[in-house]
Amino acid sequence: xxxxxxxxxxxxxxxxxxxxxxxxxxxxxxxxxxxxxxxxxxxxxxxxxxxxxxxxxxxxxxxxxxxxxxxxxxxxxxxxxxxxxxxxxxxxxxxxxxxxxxxxxxxxxxxxxxx
Amino acid sequence: xxxxxxxxxxxxxxxxxxxxxxxxxxxxxxxxxxxxxxxxxxxxxxxxxxxxxxxxxxxxxxxxxxxxxxxxxxxxxxxxxxxxxxxxxxxxxxxxxxxxxxxxxxxxxxxxxx
Lengths: 115, 114
Fold this sequence. Notes:
Number of helices of chain A: 0
Largest interface: A-B, 25 and 26 residues
Strand content of chain A: over 45%
Low-confidence stretches of chain A: none
Number of strands of chain A: 11
Oligomer: heterodimer
Structural class of chain A: mainly beta
Strand content of chain B: over 45%
Shape of chain A: globular
Largest sheet of chain B: 6 strands, mixed
Largest sheet of chain A: 7 strands, mixed
Radius of gyration of chain B: 14 Å
Structural class of chain B: mainly beta
Distance between the termini of chain B: 41 Å
Shape of chain B: globular
Order of helices and strands of chain B: EEEEEEEEEEEE
Radius of gyration of chain A: 13 Å
């Protein structure tokens, strides 16, 4: 089945130690998104790629970076995780192209713990 | 700017009864899409239903229906015949034609009582 896969499901990192979360998709979608979701809150968009074009949200901290080496893969790099970065990180994809009727397909998320 | 508002932090419903989850929105985009997602405690985000701003009829998907009132800028989700497995967090979300980004409301936690 075509899907969005996030690895790992759970990630523990130390304060200040760089960490990378990965996302892959078999849907061949143009757009890939990274959301941060803290407990009992709405997902917050960090950035998204439309093909190779990177779009950063204005309030996304510089500590968060992303890479998309090809259509299928997208990575979230947290350069120096702080305790406040502990959250669920959700990757999603969509067809894009201005098609606002295209639902986002989400992965199962990576729950990040910072010790 | 776009904004989604869900004013019910938590809701209870008796099994087999219907429940309405409220959602209002604000946007200046000429066209937009409205979505509802379900998020169980396991964390995955499950797409439930979509309504386009130019759709004449309210969307329905099985036990889910969307009560779309464009003039009032509301897009309430109706779940009929609630089941225990419906207990989850529900998010209303919107994509505008200009921004192309999906933004979420604050969510409503639904608990279905046996």
